[in-house]
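Sequence decides. Our protein:
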Amino acid sequence: MSGFPPAVVVTAGSGDASAPLVVLLHGRGSHEGEIVGLAPYLPDSFAYAAVRAPIDLGGGFAWFANRGIGRPVAESLRDTMDWFRAWLAEAAPEGRPVVLVGFSGGAAFAGGLLLDDPERFAAAAVLYGTMPFDAGVPVTPGRLRGVPVLIQRGATDTMIPAELYDRTAAYLVGESGAALEAHLYPGGHGFTEQAVADLAAWLGSLAMGPSRV
């Protein structure tokens, strides 16, 4: 399929195999050992899995090849999503709720997974990043109807192009049908203490019954 290596995963939180699984997706050039640091600040009723992106950049990892910041190459995104779904099928058999939490490049990857198969995921957090527009995944009206989605953005973030932030907000607020919670924070491209607290509160607010699949 892709020639990608087996997934490297760090786990935290609940050890109950039936607990809802929160998958933590790091940013471009980072790795799983950084984003798993969020887990101690998040609800301990969830299991957490921080997954290393499959594309080795040399000193960090990426979820897809891009044609500009926040703009995945469609073929690359498809390959990495297929790789991820193969891992997920073993990590969380259908029926176990799965929440995606992605930061920056991981946010775009989370958005791609959700748009590609919205019935598979219970909710998604798109943090300091953009949905993957023009990247081979459907961005149609009602695509995310009723799906809880959290978006966060730094007011002075210049890493992600403002037009992509604006397009993401417009789609999620309007056409998508998502059950949206949105936050704008002081500062740039990085978590604030309030952003982490809001993520924890959002996760805690989710009604985590059986998966929608």
About this structure: The longest strand covers residues 148-154. The chain has one domain: 9-205. The chain is about 30% helix and 20% strand. Residues 209-213 have pLDDT under 50 and may be disordered.
